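Colleagues,

Please find the record for the two-part complex below.
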Amino acid sequence: MLFFIGLGLGSAKDITLRGLEIVKHSKKVYLEGYTSVLESTRVEMEELYGREILIADREFVEQNCDEMINEALTDEICFLVVGDVFCATTHCDLYLRAVNKGVKVSCIHNAGIMTAVGCCGLQLYNFGRTVSIPFFTDKWRPSSFYDKIKSNLQVGMHTLCLLDIKVKEQSIENLVRGLKIYEPPRYMSINTAIQQLFQIEEEKKQGVLSPTSICVGLARVGWSTQQIVVGEAQKLLALDFGEPLHSLIIPACDQLCDIEREMLEHFTLK
Amino acid sequence: MLFFIGLGLGSAKDITLRGLEIVKHSKKVYLEGYTSVLESTRVEMEELYGREILIADREFVEQNCDEMINEALTDEICFLVVGDVFCATTHCDLYLRAVNKGVKVSCIHNAGIMTAVGCCGLQLYNFGRTVSIPFFTDKWRPSSFYDKIKSNLQVGMHTLCLLDIKVKEQSIENLVRGLKIYEPPRYMSINTAIQQLFQIEEEKKQGVLSPTSICVGLARVGWSTQQIVVGEAQKLLALDFGEPLHSLIIPACDQLCDIEREMLEHFTLK
């Protein structure tokens, strides 16, 4: 049996009672260690759960997870995922590989960012599709997220922008040379996201984001140090939101209901 | 201090360790009792949490919650919510009333349906806006959800349809007479949702749902008896999904990625 267990967004204590029970009784515990970060360290988790935790990095999950799947044919194995279980495609892939090998799979849900953003007061019903904003490089400046935000705005929908995470990435040089040397982790800040949006705006000029557009910056949702700040894009650009993870919402401001408006005022930069 | 604590979707054991700690130490524990249902009864929750749980019905939350807010000025009070905390507008309203009275508010997230639906294998990134399908009456047959599904499909997006819940509702007769007599709770089934969609389709004829359109029926997501069935609308219409709660997804089938397609096949009615 393979258990996919969501850990929620904040600390080790955000595991559910059901999740913890399974972790305690299982033979081995793996932690998916590349799509997100928790407030707690692995050591804190090991102490709280009373179990050794093996880190499954991207390579492990995408290439070498056969061992884990084979173990799950005969034993109870846990695969811990920050947030909820199926926010990343990779986990569906792992799920399919397991069931196709005859492994039983069970899923323990937990908080995920796409629902938790409701804490800023914008109604989840009023969100269009979620976008990802990737780090620009000198040569690679995709802009499809800009078009998606625009099409959400056109139908009066807010957009949640998830910001890029680069963990255990190789430089192109090292990749070409086959050297397994990894760059330090990078997490996109709200500031960088707004900067990149301004850059695309300057090229496309389709009125998605002006310096005075109202945005919602969310840092460390679900952590003890969570921050929600509402303000003009140019003002958020100058603000230090601290540690990752950051997210950004571009609200459809002309479509806000009274409660949304009041909640945004509550979080507005004074 | 007022704690909003998400309970997740399934059993009493889906509370997080952090949530349970707060419940155990707080002065009073209220349970929001009208927007959703859990697999566990209140008695099971009281046993597991070791606390008396007071039911806060819609009337209480919308009209008589001043008492709870006043208590939270001096004591630690918990307000338990099935799913995640801010999926319903009412809770933002309660949040605002509390902070406007000077109460500190804290929020413990948990699994919500809008993220948990990822368990069917459709990628959350590929969902457009979520819609609600309300029970039709003889005179009231709104169709805005049909238009929203259509506009999601036009841009290649899946639609999550949340199905109506009627708890502690008065009949119009009793409402007019001021009699506080409540109808038995009603939860819309996947079958009724598809039926109503067919009815609107017959009127509008805009090709949103044909008898052979592929749909995803989800029953009791996060429960031990969870069911996910993929199949033609006309086939799901004839299927008994059992107990509530039910949800329905209308996928944008011509836009599926390989993993989505493979996951849907895995859940396809054989």
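Residues 190-204 of chain B form the longest helix (15 residues).

Comments are welcome before we finalize the supplementary table.
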